[in-house]
């Protein structure tokens, strides 16, 4: 069995054929798609977070709204860039959104990916202390976030508060949402950061790219990353079982619309290697084929087999109806054949 959800980048544009022509379109359709995915029996609705772009950028209002409209499906991010976050304010937002959703948030956080502007975090008022990098800041912010959502009490109370304090001693962030600490994921781009995530007691979220550390096919490197994460988790002695996810672009060609959008032309049927920031990266292939052929191809993906959660990246600009159809095609024609359902 495998949890299956969608991952939306939340693009909007006025280009021909786009069903999301404004930020309002994207936000409202994201909620509608979460509702539709739940009705179809999918397990998760996840959203990317990018700043300075015509994409989803502020996740907590969206997660709270989707949480109020659904009752079962997991709601998550993939990922929140912790270079841009005040971890205490984020903890308040996360706690409130998780309580609205009834404890269904699955928050992916990380150092983030290249943004639309140079050093965009500086415009948000953040920078790295001397001797540190913004990657260090992202990890430090994450550690603070984890502590405060886990109930850390650190703030000296006012001896003459406006309202009586609920208990003596230091105060912590409110509201607290029980269990949220166990539902934080780290988006790891390398084996080393996957190991660090395990040491911190976070789940592992691995995307459609990672640092090329061996020259092997992407799915092999990603499977080895998952194995190293599990080994580090065991070594750290955590009591609960961790979760791991991978993301893929997968389309089952079951009707003329599918074949029109994904059945012809050039597709990324092979891994791609290239430079990203200051390191060499490997980008995973896309899958688009008739269901029987798709099943054969996916059986060979070692990372999908190793992960307990699969996030399907979706073309959100094609609208709610089409994306619900594409998700249903995977759940109906592919997942059962692979033992995921």
From TrEMBL:
GO terms for molecular function: oxidoreductase activity, acting on paired donors, with incorporation or reduction of molecular oxygen. SUPFAM superfamilies: Bacterial luciferase-like (SSF51679). PANTHER family: BLL6902 PROTEIN (PTHR30137:SF15), LUCIFERASE-LIKE MONOOXYGENASE (PTHR30137). Gene3D superfamilies: Luciferase-like domain. This is LLM class flavin-dependent oxidoreductase. It comes from Protaetiibacter intestinalis. It comes from the Bacteria. InterPro entries: Bact_Lucif_Oxidored, Luciferase-like_dom, Luciferase-like_sf. Coiled coil: none annotated. Pfam families: Bac_luciferase. GO terms for cellular component: cytosol. Residues 13-257 form the Luciferase-like domain.
